[in-house]
Amino acid sequence: MNPFHINDFLILHLARTFLTRALLSAENQSKVEQILTDEGCGAADGCSVNMTFLGQEGDRLFSNIEMGPAVESQNRSQLNIFTASPGEFIIHCNKLV
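Below the sequence we write its predicted structure tokens.
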């Protein structure tokens, strides 16, 4: 059981917990991007998702998706996507401003 509190939600936006649970149903990166974008609503807060799909054809790609909360003028989450091929690296840092 995951308890939710009213402070976990911003009005009209989804908590990232619901979006990240929905990722379990994604069969490919396109579906992941669709889930995280959450068109029409957007996320109340952000998160970072690291992923690869083990059953895909060809080289195994590794992706990092930073999901930022929806801004007032848009009803969708902000996504920043990095994808690495075999032999490449992703270095990621956050800076609280």
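Helices lie at 16-22, 29-37.
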